[in-house]
Amino acid sequence: MDLKGEYRIAAPREHVWALINDPQALRECIPGCNSLEGSLEDGFTARVTTKIGPVKATFEGEVTLSNVVAPESYTISGAGKGGIAGFAKGGADVNLADVDGETVLTYVAKAQVGGKLAQLGSRLIDSTAKKLADEFFASLAARAAPADAVAAAIETPAERPKARWFSR
């Protein structure tokens, strides 16, 4: 399976770089992530629960970073086993670029699945992978947004217009 995407994040590249290298931030952004432990230098172990079509599985695996060019790019590689559901392995080249004070994150990924997952069909697997990637990057973008932008987007109860009920 091949997957690629581009996301515009309203934050400076250095800030986005710090987030995509922060285990706590990643754990909170990865859909279904139960645990993520380790370091950038030694790699990470992860436990993620996800559902692909009718198959729900918990994957345990390892993730490593290579070709690191801070704060511009790296290659992320990993493999995970999901018990009887099968396995998944692959990697992605991730690039960050400054564009008008924001960060454009692009990635190109290749992945392979086996076992029960492989029987589901590539269209279902591809659409689920794209959905999970979109959820991850939406969460990352929200986390990267400047605090004043987030505060402006949240309405406090005092600022909401009061509902008016009329009866006749």
Summary?
This protein is of the alpha+beta class and 168 residues long. Helices cover 27% and strands 45% of the residues.
Straight-line N-to-C gap: 62 Å
Number of domains: 1
Unreliable runs, pLDDT <50, ≥5 residues?
149-168
What would the CATH topology be? Alpha-D-Glucose-1,6-Bisphosphate, Chain A, domain 4
InterPro entries: CO_DH_gsu, START-like_dom_sf
Pfam family, one: COXG
Protein name: Carbon monoxide dehydrogenase
Map the helices and strands:
Elements: E1 2-9, H1 13-20, H2 23-29, E2 33-39, E3 43-52, E4 55-69, E5 73-81, E6 87-99, E7 102-114, H3 122-144, H4 147-153
Antiparallel strand pairs: 1-7, 2-3, 3-4, 4-5, 5-6, 6-7
Helix pairs in contact: 1-3, 2-3
Structure, explained:
The chain has a 7-stranded antiparallel β-sheet. Mean pLDDT is 86; it is low at 149-168. It contains 4 helices and 7 strands, in the order βααββββββαα. It has helices spanning 13-20, 23-29, 122-144, 147-153; strands spanning 2-9, 33-39, 43-52, 55-69, 73-81, 87-99, 102-114. The longest helix is centred in the C-terminal third of the chain and has 23 residues, at 122-144. A hairpin with a 2-residue loop joins β3 (43-52) and β4 (55-69). The protein is globular, with a radius of gyration of 19 Å.
